[in-house]
Amino acid sequence: MHELYPFARPFLFALDAETAHDVAFAALDRLARARIVRAPHLAQSPVTVMGLGFPNRVGLAAGLDKNAAHLDALAAFGFGFIEVGTVTPRAQPGNPRPRMFRLPKAHAIVNRLGFNNGGVQALVDNVARARYRGILGINIGRNFDTPNERAADDYVACLRAVYAYAHYVTVNISSPNTKGLRDLQAGDALPALLEALKHEQETLAQAHGRYVPLAIKIAPDLTDDAVRGVARMLVERRMDAVIATNTTLSRDKVSGSAHADEAGGLSGPPLFERSTAVVRVLADALDGALPIIGVGGIDSGDAARAKLAAGASLVQLYTGLIYRGPGLVAECVRATAPPTPVAARKP
């Protein structure tokens, strides 16, 4: 499968970006159902983060499989973990098409999808049907028409619905494509939301006899001071991890490119420098209090290694997969594995 992607990419890139996504997954799903595709053989490099044992440090970022409809196909890529969503309590269509644009020279994507998903019940039904048994993160958000004053109700409802199915839950308060969502990162809104989520997490842990960690996904467009403020709040409210970062509204790195002026979040290598800087600021502010999952612009093993060097414990891929294909996963797994110790020579 990995070897075929360079041949399939020209065909996929001739299609609208969202259509190409649907076509690619339709083919992958058929291969997965027939059990034709299998995960590549990769040397395991287990690591414990959030109290969970990951077979390797490389995961799939949320957004590629919003409804957890393709878990068995994605399992064949060799990920150490998969994150699905963002899912909302009620199904919603997202923003009008076209809403996803490639910037091929920059290996980047602009999207304004807007949490298009089938609703939380459809997602958990898909998870229950899947054969995948690896580490699963479920990314939750609020519906587009829920005001921020009631956002906690949506997040709590999603947390209740997915708790039994997730190894960890990500709280998305950083997408730029749902009006007002990023306001939840600031002021009194963040502590109130985190307090509601922590209370519900503790209640659910007692009811299920199992603790499911909470990770908070933040934006790259926060100032460094704001990032430090978020870090303090996450520690105070006893969150379990932070994911840095979501897509960016900045176009500094792609100014003048076709589609650069489209509304939405930019992902890919133009995001790498800022998202990695946010990881670095978080690592300094947290000083080991919480693990960091680094995401944004990883398109090579070297880039994945740089996220770890900045302070991340795990990394996630998305846009790099669109341009490089499944072989990127194996490259990043190898790059982020600890060096093999040299056997001591016998005298």
- Rg over alpha carbons: 19 Å
Helix content: 25-40%
Percentage of residues in strands: 15-25%
In the residues, how many domains can be counted?
1
CATH domain class: Alpha Beta
Reported for the largest beta sheet, the result is:
8 strands, parallel, barrel
Overall 3D form: globular
Structure description:
- The chain is an alpha/beta fold and 347 residues long.
- The chain has one domain: Aldolase class I (TIM Barrel, Alpha-Beta Barrel).
- The protein has helices at residues 5-13, 17-33, 71-75, 120-129, 151-162, 189-208, 224-236, 269-286, 301-310, 319-324, 327-336, and strands at residues 47-49, 52-54, 58-60, 81-87, 100-103, 108-111, 135-140, 168-172, 214-218, 241-244, 265-267, 292-295, 314-317.
- The strands form 3 sheets. The protein has an 8-stranded parallel beta barrel, surrounded by 5 helices.
- Helix 5 (151-162) runs parallel beside helix 6 (189-208) and helix 8 packs parallel to helix 9 (301-310).
- The chain starts with a helix and ends in an 11-residue tail after the last helix.
- The model is unreliable at 343-347 (pLDDT under 50).
